């Protein structure tokens, strides 16, 4: 799924778009299967009688309520959590009904590190810690798929962004020393 273009600047492109590691939704999916099994078994075990329909309805409603709380909500949280690396910044968006977001400009990132437990190494996941210039401190993102690759990509993107800014700055300085105030006219 492409990230909304309305959030990007004119010369900005999405390099990588991530969600938390897919294993974060493993237990909700297992719980869904257990709920379906237990709900079906519970509904089938209701003895015949005048209230059998009401009791079956109670079992089904309880399974649906538990399913929404412990299956649908975690799946929606996973789906609505975005880590987007662009050519200019790192965007973080999370939330189902209300949204929270943070943008970290690549020029402000001073250090990117990752950590992995043994389990994280097995499933190729990890935690990214991003240090930025200023008062914000470090930003920690957990359950990042391919955290080592993302760390290397972010370091590469920070270097490219610094090179791009240096070239833009050099172009402006060159215009200043040539006495130009606007864009450089084509030479004939």
List keywords for this structure.
single chain; four-stranded antiparallel beta sheet; 188 residues; alpha+beta; 7 strands
Describe this protein's structure.
There is one protein chain. With 188 residues, the chain is α+β, with helices and mostly antiparallel strands. It has helices at residues 26-44, 52-79, 118-123, 147-178; strands at residues 14-18, 82-86, 89-94, 100-105, 109-115, 125-132, 138-145. The protein is elongated. The model has no long low-confidence stretch (mean pLDDT 89).
Strand order of the largest sheet: 1-2-3-4
State mean pLDDT (0 to 100 scale). 89
Q: Tell me, briefly, the overall form.
A: elongated
Q: How far from one another are the termini?
A: 46 Å
Summarize the helix and strand pattern as letters. Answer: EHHEEEEHEEH
Radius of gyration: 25 Å
Major beta-sheet overview: 4 strands, antiparallel
- Catalogue the unreliable spans: none
Helical stretch tally: 4
Q: Which band does the percent of strand residues land in?
A: 15-25%
Estimate the helix proportion, in percent. Answer: 40-55%
């Amino acid at each position: 799924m492409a990230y909304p273009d309305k959030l990007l600047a004119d010369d900005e492109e999405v390099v990588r778009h991530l969600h938390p590691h897919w294993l974060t939704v493993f237990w909700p999916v297992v719980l869904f299967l257990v709920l379906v099994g237990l709900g079906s078994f519970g509904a089938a075990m209701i003895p015949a009688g005048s209230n059998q329909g009401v009791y079956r309805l109670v079992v089904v409603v309880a399974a649906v309520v538990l399913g929404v709380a412990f299956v649908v909500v975690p799946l929606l949280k996973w789906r609505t959590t975005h880590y987007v690396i662009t050519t200019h910044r790192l965007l973080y968006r999370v939330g189902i009904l209300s949204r929270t977001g943070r943008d970290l400009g690549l020029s402000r990132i001073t250090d990117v590190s990752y950590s992995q437990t043994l389990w994280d190494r097995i499933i190729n996941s990890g935690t990214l810690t991003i240090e930025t210039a200023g008062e914000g401190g470090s930003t920690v993102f957990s359950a990042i798929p391919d955290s080592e690759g993302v760390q290397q990509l972010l370091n590469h993107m920070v270097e490219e962004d610094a090179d791009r800014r240096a070239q833009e700055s050099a172009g402006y300085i060159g215009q200043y020393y040539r006495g130009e105030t606007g864009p450089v006219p084509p030479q004939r």
